[in-house]
Design goal:
Monomer. A motif ('KMSKS' region) lies at residues 239-243. The chain is α/β, with parallel strands linked by helices. The protein has 4 domains: 1-94 and 145-315, Rossmann fold (3-Layer(aba) Sandwich), CATH 3.40.50.620; 98-139, no CATH class; 318-352, no CATH class; 366-439, Arc Repressor Mutant, subunit A. 45% of the residues lie in helices and 12% in strands. The chain has 20 helices and 12 strands. The chain has helices at 16-31, 50-63, 77-89, 100-112, 128-136, 184-193, 206-219, 249-254, 259-268, 281-287, 302-314, 318-327, 333-339, 348-352, 354-357, 369-377, 388-400, 405-416, 424-431, 433-439, and strands spanning 3-6, 35-40, 69-72, 93-96, 142-145, 151-156, 160-165, 173-175, 198-202, 225-229, 232-233, 298-299. A 3-stranded parallel sheet has the order 1-2-3. A 3-stranded antiparallel sheet has the order 4-5-8. β6 (151-156) and β7 form a beta hairpin. α1 crosses α10 (281-287), α3 (77-89) packs across α6 and α6 (184-193) crosses α7 (206-219). The chain is elongated and about 110 Å long.
Length: 441
Amino acid sequence: MTIVRWAPSPTGRIHLGNARPAMLNWFFAKRHGGRYVLRMDDTDTARSTREFADGVEADLAWLGITPDLLVRQSDRTTLYDAARDRLIAAGRLYPCYETEDELDRRRKRARAMGKPPIYDRAALKLTDADRAKLEAEGRKPHWRFKLDGRPVQFEDLIKGPQTVNTASMSDPVLVREDGSYLYTLPSVVDDIDLAITHVIRGEDHVSNTGTQIEIFEALGGPVPIFGHHNLLTDAEGQGFSKRLGSQSLSDFRAEGYEPLAIAIMASITGTSLPIEPYASLDDIAARLDFSMISHGAARFDPVELDNLNARLLHTMSYEEALPRLSSLGLEGEAIWLLLRDNLAKFSDIIEWSKLVLGPVEPVIADEDRDFLALAKALLPPEPWSLETWGEWTNALKAATGRKGKPLFLPLRLALTGRHDGPELKSLLPLVGRKACLDRLP
């Protein structure tokens, strides 16, 4: 069975850049009848909070994602401890005692000599006596994984054949001085334990994949299939970032955007599929193949989001809109079908509904008062239909000689108080004769 995972760090509210792998993993699982694991990578105890973790779950639910399994790395340290001990016993995890200042000086010296600034494995030369002396001085070790230093090759699900040469990389630190774990080891251990078959994430992780494949192999676990997608950037081409305060999904929700619009923008941007309304997440899953993902950057356009959000509302059925309309006290299919084409956000229906239900502040120019008084006198009797507007304006045209904008605009401004809006032939029967008489001078 296909099993994927999305593994956010609950150190802030998730943004569009985070939503992209969340959605792509969901679509892949749906397309292949698989399972979706939400894994909270909360080993950074200083920055991870339960509030942020709850926010992640709320944002996923808003997007329409229901994980099959939720796990938290903070609950799984026993697994990581066992893997750590196995790697130490195998000679693949070794203690290092350099301070950050010392490491920084070594990197600068290597650059000055024209060498790559990678760790020189000096700690491997320490004797037991050396280590005992350092620990007697109060130093505590961090632990590095000893890379094979070879070309690691893998077939990327999205980018095709890839090679990462770990000989050009520093042995990665897997365990901090305080004994806490960095991202890499828990990630591999969890992928093995949870039987993850596919790891789908941003292309900024390609080099990490070489390291992680070596750790998979050192632990004797099956290596999953990796897929690295292009990154979503903002309109200026900058990556989204919690650190930089990029707009979060909760911000978009508060501003009234449709969750499906956000899901489409987060996933379809940077693919060969068009940015357009889709019926549902299942509809996207059925259409989106990873071969459609571009190898170039995926640039988010806020104007495109606004247009998409409006188009989704313009095609929304009354049945779909009804629960939200009911919460606003605005039930009525005729009103919805009349006004939905004017909406940019769903909440706009509150203001637009005043055209039907009132109150309306008529806009009446002095030079149009006589014309509007005559219009009031010629207003047809009820019952009204879609033909009433034509009957009324034809009578006014015959009586005044007005036509086009001089005829129609004063009527629109008096009846709605706006220059724009739905067709008056459709609006008139819903407003009714009494309300029209009240709005005309």
